[in-house]
Specification:
The protein is mainly alpha-helical. The protein has 2 domains: 1-70, Multidrug-efflux Transporter Regulator, Chain: A, Domain 2; 71-107. 71% of the residues lie in helices and 7% in strands. The chain has 5 helices and 3 strands, in the order H-E-H-H-E-E-H-H. It has helices spanning 2-10, 16-23, 27-35, 53-67, 72-106; strands at residues 14-15, 42-43, 49-51. It has a 3-stranded antiparallel β-sheet with strand order 1-3-2. A hairpin with a 5-residue loop joins strand 2 (42-43) and strand 3 (49-51). The chain is elongated, with a radius of gyration of 18 Å.
């Protein structure tokens, strides 16, 4: 169920108008954050942007950081750093699981 909840959170089904209403950001601000590579909406065949609940959360986080005076390039750099740390952590966990599996199979 948790995995299903995660995938529902990632579904790109929310219009920019609804995102505007949920976040309090203007459509112009939302498009600006897309231009700055902080948010990545899906596009329909006719070019309409669609967002996920994760995108809405991310936009709210961006807005909070911007209010604190953090620049968009700093936000992007920090997120890339966190993504890299998470990827390294996942690799270490997988390595540990593989090692534990082979130790058990040899006993």
């Amino acid at each position: 169920m948790a995995h299903e909840d995660h995938s529902l959170k990632e579904r790109k089904v929310i219009s920019i108008g609804t995102v505007r209403d949920l976040t309090g950001l203007s459509e112009r601000q939302i498009r600006y954050y897309e231009e700055r590579k902080l948010i990545f909406p899906a596009r329909t065949g006719s070019g309409i942007r669609k967002y996920s609940f994760s995108d809405v959360e991310r936009l709210m986080e961006i807005a909070n950081q911007m209010e604190e005076g953090v620049q968009t390039h700093e936000i992007r750099r920090e997120w890339k750093k966190k993504e890299k740390e998470n990827e390294n952590w996942k690799k270490q966990m997988l390595k540990g699981q593989i090692q534990a599996h082979f130790k058990q199979s040899r006993q």
